[in-house]
Amino acid sequence: MLRSLRRFDQSEVAQQRMKIISFYQAYGERATIEAFGTDRRVISRWMRRLGNSGGQLSSLAPLTTRPHTTRTPVTDQRIIDFIAGEREAHPGVGKEKLKPDLDIHCARLGIPSVSVSTIGNIIRRHHFFFQKQGKCYHDPNSKWAQNKVERKKRLRIRYSPHPEGDGHILSDTVERITDGVKDYFMSAIDARMKFALTLNYRRITSTNMKDFYYRFKSVYPGDIRVWQSDNGSENLGVFDKQLEDDGIPHLFIYPRCPKIDTFIERYNRTLQEEFIDYNLDTIHDKSVFNQKLSEWNIYYNTKRRHHSLELKSPLGYFVEKGGMSHKSLTYTSPCKGSPFLL
Prior knowledge:
Blueprint (H helix, E strand, L loop, with lengths): L9 H18 L1 H8 L3 H13 L24 H13 L5 H15 L6 H10 L29 E3 L10 E11 L2 E10 L5 E6 L4 H14 L6 E4 L7 H9 L4 E4 L8 H15 L9 H17 L11 H7 L22
Parallel strand pairs: 1-6, 2-5, 5-6
Antiparallel strand pairs: 2-3, 3-4
Helix pairs in contact: 1-2, 1-3, 4-5, 5-6, 7-8
């Protein structure tokens, strides 16, 4: 009976205890034990508290069960500062992906590191959550399917790819409307290596997609074998012709089947949650916003860790496979022109 009192709030518990005291005074201890499971010692303690308070019912409310002495977590402040800095700069990075970088940081400082669960506790305890609210998802359906103009037969892919090697590229475009102004983010990612690139454009055209293709090709460390996209108009015209001229097969997914594009759709979510939503305050200042986007592209490919790559970065994974040397990572070819002006 006493355990069942935990289901009630404090005022209800106090009323029930007062009822037990009245029953005890009327019928004695044996009947009270049989009816409520409460003996004389417990009731005497309640009656003493009631008498000391001058008969106030609130004195019968349960006291706190919190220990008088509790453990205080002892974590080096430098570890807390490192986690706070990483979470603020990249709010979507979880505890498991922070662990390898934290180990390197602690080794450099000569202090012991902490476990993955401790990193999670530090994030919760100090409320290191910096995500900004608001999401906007791209609708992949296009009006191109209603066009009655004769079209060439498209190569179709039925299932999400699971390539054993590099070079299978998936692309997509995300539309973002902020304060009534549209922005388009063209992205591409390698299905195996996870190397990715995102650029911001003002218009969604096949000319801009062709420009994006050239820029992706200039920084991609491997050879493009296949290019996969949805059926949007930007993936046709001069862009499709350029892929044909380069001898790269262009695969189209089936309409209303985004699961076939699972790798790029998951990347779009990462892009929106970890970068776009986090930098909406500068999205209309294109010089600042595109500079931050460039820095995020570099971070994503050189430092951000991926579970599918055994917690390595895309370029770190590519180097480990022998695809390129560490020395080649020190040179980055600049992209001429401003893509958002196209």
